[in-house]
Specification:
seven-stranded mixed β-sheet; 9 helices; globular; 11% strand
Length: 298
Amino acid sequence: GSSSSSTSKLVQSGASMPTYGKVAVIGLGVSVVVAINHIFSRGYAHRTALARGTEGVMVAGTAEEIGAKRPPDAIIILGGGRPSTLLNPPSFVKNRCDVAAKIHNKAKAQGIRVPLVTLSAGTAHASQLLNSHGRPIWEASASAAYMVKEHGVSPKDILMETTSWDTIGNAYFARTQIVEYTEWKRIWVVTSNFHMPRSKAIFDWIFQCSGGTKTGYELSYIETENVGLTDVQVKARQEREARSLANVHRQAKEYPTLRDVMFFLLQDHGMYSVKGLNIDGDRKTEDISEDLKKSYQS
């Protein structure tokens, strides 16, 4: 069966972040909210030195309830798998988009513009979707088109990052191609439950790297339901994420500046470097299980 929960959760990083009050969960008692926060404070936030020792505060509630709080300067929505059409990203990615779009629309109704940023060119674990002209339909394009079509978000309120092929690239190119050229400081990052621990570690690392044009970013994280994935697929993704998290902590220490990360990606990373090419020009792909492969497709 599908694995899902009933709420979105807001996670905060950074010593200067304001504290949001607890929000009642629809259909659940306050005791459950307290329990969720307790679980989170016991380590789910992956407290690290990069987060300046500050544990996140998780607030459970609907997208509208979270959106009614002080809106951010922008919301970043991570990609997560191959869309089946331009308007049909994977269900768990649609759920990320649903939450972000509802918060955006809530702020817009209050006269506040909150730009949305969709991420990712694609994934190493699924073939690239092409349009009728043979051009790629990026994961970021599908997320953007879905929010325009299903939630009435203005195209002018969405920016697409279409360079990245993994979560480290998501964070690096979002910052260096887009965020650095804006006035944004308070940014909310949206991804799924299974993807949150590693995503948070990566975005904390990349947005605290020195060498950029700005400092003092305040990141918060909204964790969404694992919609559309079977329990087996969720377990496979969680296990993979947990294995990769240790590498992220090591890489964050090894590459503390944006320049360091750039050379790591372009010289050593399998999806961005010449080093990652085979003689015939195809990228080397990791051998993964069928359940894991299916989780990267609509």
